[in-house]
Structures
1.
Amino acid sequence: MARILQFSTVRAKSPDAPAGRPGQPPGAGRRVVAEPDTPLSAAEAQRFRALVLPHLDAAYGFARYLTRDASQAEDIVQEAFLKAFRGFSGFRGGDPRAWLFAIVRTTFLSAARSRAAWAEPATAEAIASEDDTPEGALLRQGEVAMVRGAIEALPEPFRETLVLRELEELSYRQIAEVTSAPIGTVMSRLARARHMLLAALSGETES
């Protein structure tokens, strides 16, 4: 199935935090907790920065959809980043983005269990293109907000699977690694998530 509804327009990376300046690495515009003192050697620390730091914005986007709250997503990524740094000696290769996403997900689940309730979803924003007319920008913002809201309304297992596949473009195997679910379960959740999303969007359109 082709990427539905141009999912790249509903990424959660940019609306809630400033982007880095031109020439800066990914995540440069986002506040990052200083790396703690760890047994990592200088070479390992440098390897961590090279492999993991470029995926910081993507991790925030994933956390943003998991938490449905910008501030909580920031906290989740901060904690996950520190956990990843402290545990980097146990990284045995593979896709560092999937490895980081698994830590983000575990951190989110741990935080969710310790909270009585999560805050209401933050209002979605959209960044208008310089070529947009005011009318076109308003229309596009409305469409993006509608799709993002529909994604955030999905139950957690389906929401995270859809985001990992359609927004972050992870493979089924990578999603299985992140969520600790069999590939068959991943495929089933993805199919159901797509169905629920399209049904939600159809309802919005008809209303």
2.
Amino acid sequence: MQQYNDFSLRWPTGSIKHNLTNLYNRRTRHCLHYLDKAVNCFTFALNKKKMDTQDFSTISNIIKTRRTIKPAAMNGQKIPNSQIAALLELADWAPTHAHTEPWRFVIYENPQEFCRQHAEIYKQAATEAGNFNPATYNNLTHMGDLTSHIVIPVMHRGELSKIPVVEEVIAASCAVQNLLLGARALNIAAYWGTGGATLKPGMKTFLGFGDDDQVLGLLYLGYSADQPDGKRKIPLEEKVRWVA
């Protein structure tokens, strides 16, 4: 019997090459698949970190450059109602305990008319109290002459009375802060004031709210070229206490 000592004679060369090629291709595809997944995961993590950093930088800049701009420094230019609506949508995403969502807003597109009404509310209350000041009356009358809109935030006390009032006031105030930060992002000037009869019972009655509701101020919105420098008088270290 003829003996075959040559391996290539006992096993067809083409079959070996074909099997090895298939094995290589399968393993290569397998490795490339997981390598591709690893690269994608790394790229996602890198982009997310970059995105997170950019998001923080953006919101940090908005918060740190928000300023109080008095109504007298505004220029009378009108803000599109669509932008006011967009700000109110931001306000609606404030934190809220038990989803009470206690914020309410009254928007005046004609701030001059509201200011005249506000001055009259002040006059009536101050006259009854015996401390009416004609200068204050005049200032309130013309407070909104150069503003675009006046937004009045109110804490509306709902039926879920187990929620402490202070929590509802805080939630509504957070809504106001959302609005103010959005205004800054749109280069809208804002002034949050509580003067005149703003916090008096007569204002709640005028606006149609109940005894348990609280008016949180008046937001005068408009445009202005002013951008005052920001400052903090008390160092942050004096306001913070770390506990290990």
